[in-house]
What we know:
Mean pLDDT: 90
Distance between the termini: 33 Å
CATH topology of the largest domain: UDP-N-acetylmuramoyl-L-alanine:D-glutamate ligase
Helix content: 25-40%
Shape: globular
CATH architecture of the largest domain: 3-Layer(aba) Sandwich
Number of helices: 15
Radius of gyration: 22 Å
Amino acid sequence: MNDKAPLSIDDLQTWLNYWSHVHVTGIDLGLERVIPVAEQLGVMKPQAKVITVAGTNGKGSTTTTLAAILNAQGLNIGLYQSPHIYRFNERVKLAGQEVDDQSLIDAFVQVDQARRVCDLSLSFFEATTLAAFVIFKQKQCDVWILEVGLGGRLDVVNVIDPDIAVITNIGLDHTDWLGDTIEKIAYEKAGIIRPHIPVIFGGVQDLPQAIQNKADECQAKLFTVNRDYFYDYADDGQSWNFAGSGVTLKLPLGHLAIENISTAVAAILVSGLTVSQNAIAQGIQNAQLQGRFEIRKIKDKTVIFDAGHNPHGVDFLLKQLQKFLECNKQYTEVVSVFSMLSDKDIDSVIKLLKNTVLKWKIAALIVPRAAPLEQLQAALQGETVEQFNCVQAAFQSALADTKNNQLILVCGSFHTLEAVWEYLEECQ
Length: 428
């Protein structure tokens, strides 16, 4: 399919293939091409509250919690996230439900018409993000919750001025695009800050100076964890406490990481939206996200799926795994179905995992940027490793070989999880 494609395509996958080939590169940071198309579509100034979330890790959990709380309050919520794990439709949710194919197709038609009027090409991510904006506008969503794809300052999501900016944390990832230091990456993330809006920083590390500088420049009110708001576990093991300026809440534990749930709660409290404590509690309990320490029973085997793909994400995975093993002492060994992308910090990720993982079952992913088996094997030197021709075969082997005292950890990349889920779907 080429740029001369008809505008009447009525198949979602054909559209997705089309957007994959319209632009010369998959990642092309910058807003010069996107802004004229967004203006043509009339999505630049939503008649809605906009919450934009950037960060290295935790964006998905934070945006999911925000949407769940506001849905519980009865508001009409549009949630945009990326990447998807199994179906593209996961990226765009209305009132907690994935958008249907036809709504996406109709939006793609509008985006393609607009870019042709502007005589501009769009990358896959740019086109699909603009389509989400078109849908939220048409559905008259009360609140748009937008997850930044890469960085912040130059990401297509940043064509929309947010009413609240949230930065979850800063880690070394996508260094080729964003810079090779925490401060350089923080500068890019801080690009979502606008004048006089509330800004939440929920990172576990000290506040980067670049975020403070941008907030000062914009005269934006900055709320930082462990300075302006606090959270800790309650003694009952069933709840946790949130404390901010003039407010103390006792809330239930959810399915996602408490550091990200607390970031979402902080954003809700400064949003100006009327949200009850019951809606906050209900939303926390409702919020779930595929691939974030997701525990499943498959053929009587315990399988944990986690999409952590950089040192910060894997460090957090290991903390959750440690808690799980302490509560489930029947498991004494971990077998990992593992693969990564070649441009990730494979050595650091494996160094973190190798004291926990007894045996590795590895395969190369069938996606661009996949790490070849040789690269994975070299990083795993000295470990017990079995190689397979695909992730599905590695997972099949893990299911067949795993003993009662072992659990299976599928990790290393969203794509690793996706390959296993596709296999499980085919087996149903």
